[in-house]
Amino acid sequence: MQQTVKQRLIKFYTAIGLKKNSFEKTIGVSHGYIDKLRECPSNDKLESIYLAFPDLNRIWLLTGEGEMLNSSSVDSAPASGGGPAEGLPLIPVDAMAGALSGTSYDPISRYDCEDMYNVPVFRGAEFLIRVQGDSMQPKYMSGDIIACRRVSLDRLWFQWGKAYVLDTQQGAILKRIEPSRKKGCISACSENPKYKPFDISVDDINGIAIVLGTIRAE
After folding, report:
1. pTM above 0.70, yes or no
2. Are 167 and 205 in contact (CB under 8 A)?
3. 3-state DSSP helix/strand/coil percent for the chain, to nearest 5?
């Protein structure tokens, strides 16, 4: 009997050593999402999965044809799961903006990083950033480390409700992004209710990265 997309999804995250809860957190869905999934995930959920796990063969997931992982990733994927071979760099706050708006020759390697980490769960991540402040509590606590992947401004589209790090005129900020009523703007929202959402013009964004997951010390 042919497997369903849900069954192949479970097979995939089990094969890469993830538990269900960790997989759900990585792709940005609520606890119990996999259990409630009946057929194929919606298009926006599929894009979240592909973004978090670029090595996953899309055709295999949807049809069962071919191999689970893209052949190129099997041959050449680094141990860190998407970052540099020696691990993912933890970018200091004062270098954050440059990491977001860098050029194609990977400027992250130019910074004096706090440290390098091998985090296989964050496949596709390019660097890590330490959260500061309480505006995104309780989802992101001060001191948490978030895994990020840069997004091209030339082909920019937002996954509404997802967390992004934005390089703005007032510095780099971590916010949940929602649609704005103002043309050419997005709404930057905090998880902490004492901070009100505000609009940012897309033209005022110098660089952007999507948050793929979180590391939290208990």
Report:
1. no
2. yes
3. 25, 25, 50
Strand residue runs (E) in 1-144: 88-91, 115-117, 127-130
Give tens-digit pLDDT for 126-158.
888 889 899 999 999 998 889 888 888 877 788
Distance separating the N- and C-terminal Cα atoms of the chain: 43
Interatomic CA distance for residues 126 and 23, integer angstroms: 18
Q: Which of 51, 118, 18, 49 is nearest to 78 (CA)?
A: 118
How many other C-beta atoms lie within 10 A of the C-beta of residue 69?
18
Single-letter amino acid code for the residue at 89: P
Measured between alpha carbons, how far is 95 from 151 in angstroms, rounded to an integer?
17
Query: From start to end of the chain, where are the E strands?
Result: 88-91, 115-117, 127-130, 145-150, 163-168, 171-179, 185-189, 198-201, 207-215
Closest of 67, 108, 83 to residue 213, by C-alpha:
83
